[in-house]
């Protein structure tokens, strides 16, 4: 175990690929499953890494990665994915490329077959929805999704959490408009470049709502926060599951947990240490349990736009370098993103659970 005096540790290069990697998860058999970042409209949405660590095959197969006109039984636009303790890889399909109802697709890697599809219809999904990432509360059988609120011309002001009851498939939209989900008026700045997008009044600063989200390993607390913002928030998972609470009552139970930089993905270990992909730096940060103060934990010059972070059976945390900030839209039409697109890994302070 490293000490703070040793931080940041150097992340280790694990894989190099021809397409941008979004989020990563692992099966109990140690297969590396990842999403090709939907920001770049990839032909293959989700893939399994080959043993050479330089190539991949479509996951779960080619058919599910092939768009269709007469059915929505395919993966359209996937970023967030996690494997549960039963070997089911869950993939959140935002549906943005083909204007589909968002859905969560579960693929059982033990039987190599479809486990279940959960749909996220209106009013749990809005026209501005972008269901980015999620966490699975295996104790209460609920899935909590972070909706960034930046899909289809959204500006983050509709950001919220969405809950799926895994027993019934019922969906609920929570905390829309609450400070824990809304982007703050802070810019994302990389190498002195402020990232901007086309808005209603011209170029506007990139502002993204609820993004990173993770449950602790005891399924007591849910940690989450906007990408554009200075705080990680938390709320008890018992409160998320309590359908008798109004949104106002639920909002009053949200706690400010720790300060942070602008960040995307969230991971956690068994001791409750949080791992944050700090998108403005080439690093993964940490918020230790004992002293919940943010620090840079693992770094490498080539971790450009760290996106998803996830724990593997080999005891390492893995992080993608998606290069989103180098896309043409953020650089006056000059596309600076290029292969190889890399996956890095680093040892966490303590072990975690698969996919966290």
Please explain how this structure is put together.
With 356 residues, this protein is mostly beta strands. The chain is built from 2 helices and 29 strands. It has helices at 237-241, 247-252; strands at residues 9-10, 12-17, 21-26, 32-36, 46-49, 56-58, 78-83, 88-93, 103-108, 113-119, 131-137, 142-147, 160-165, 171-174, 189-190, 193-194, 196-199, 202-205, 210-215, 221-226, 231-236, 255-259, 263-268, 274-278, 283-287, 295-299, 306-311, 317-321, 341-346. Strands 1-26-25-24-23 form a 5-stranded mixed β-sheet, with no helix packed on it. Strands 2-29-28-27 form a 4-stranded antiparallel β-sheet, with no helix packed on it. A hairpin with a 5-residue loop joins strand 23 (263-268) and strand 24 (274-278). The longest helix has 6 residues, at 247-252.
Q: Please, what is the average pLDDT?
A: 96
Full CATH superfamily name: TolB, C-terminal domain
Number of strands: 29
**How much beta, percentage-wise?**
35-45%
The CATH class is identified as: Mainly Beta
**Major sheet:** 5 strands, mixed
Q: What order do the strands of the largest sheet run in, or round the barrel if closed?
A: 1-26-25-24-23
Gyration radius, to the nearest Å? 18 Å
CATH topology name, in short, is: Neuraminidase
Shape: globular
Number of folding domains? Answer: 1
Number of helices: 2
Name the assembly state: single chain
Going by CATH, the architecture would be 6 Propeller
Distance between the termini: 19 Å
Unreliable stretches = none
């Amino acid at each position: 175990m490293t000490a703070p005096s040793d931080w940041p540790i150097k992340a280790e290069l694990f894989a190099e690929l021809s397409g941008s990697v979004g989020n990563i998860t692992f099966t109990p058999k140690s297969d590396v499953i990842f999403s090709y970042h939907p920001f770049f409209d990839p032909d293959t949405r989700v893939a399994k890494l080959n043993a050479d660590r330089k190539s991949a095959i479509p996951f779960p197969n080619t058919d599910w990665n092939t768009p269709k006109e007469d059915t929505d039984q395919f993966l359209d636009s996937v970023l967030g994915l996690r494997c549960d303790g039963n070997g089911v890889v869950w993939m959140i399909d935002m549906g943005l490329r083909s204007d589909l109802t968002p859905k969560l697709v579960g693929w059982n890697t033990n039987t190599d077959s479809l486990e279940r599809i959960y749909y996220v219809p209106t009013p749990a999904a809005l026209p501005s929805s972008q269901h980015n990432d999620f966490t699975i509360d295996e104790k209460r059988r609920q899935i909590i999704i972070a909706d960034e609120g930046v899909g289809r011309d959204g500006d983050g002001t509709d950001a919220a959490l969405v809950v799926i009851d895994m027993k019934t498939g019922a969906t609920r939209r929570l905390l829309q408009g609450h400070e824990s989900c809304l982007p703050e008026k802070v810019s994302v700045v990389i190498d002195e470049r402020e990232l901007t997008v086309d808005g209603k009044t011209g170029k506007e600063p990139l502002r993204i709502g609820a993004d990173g989200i993770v449950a602790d390993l005891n399924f007591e607390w849910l940690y989450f926060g906007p990408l554009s913002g200075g705080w990680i928030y938390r709320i008890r998972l018992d409160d998320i599951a309590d359908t008798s609470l109004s949104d106002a009552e639920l909002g009053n139970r949200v706690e400010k947990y720790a300060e942070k930089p602008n960040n995307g993905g969230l991971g956690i270990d068994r001791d409750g240490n949080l791992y944050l992909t700090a998108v403005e730096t080439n690093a993964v940060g940490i918020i230790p349990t004992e002293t919940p103060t943010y620090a840079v934990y693992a770094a490498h010059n080539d971790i450009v736009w760290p996106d998803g972070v996830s724990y593997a059976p080999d005891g390492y945390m893995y992080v993608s370098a998606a290069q989103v900030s180098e896309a043409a839209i953020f650089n006056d039409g000059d596309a600076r993103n290029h292969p190889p697109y890399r996956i890095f890994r680093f040892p966490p302070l303590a072990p975690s659970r698969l996919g966290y």
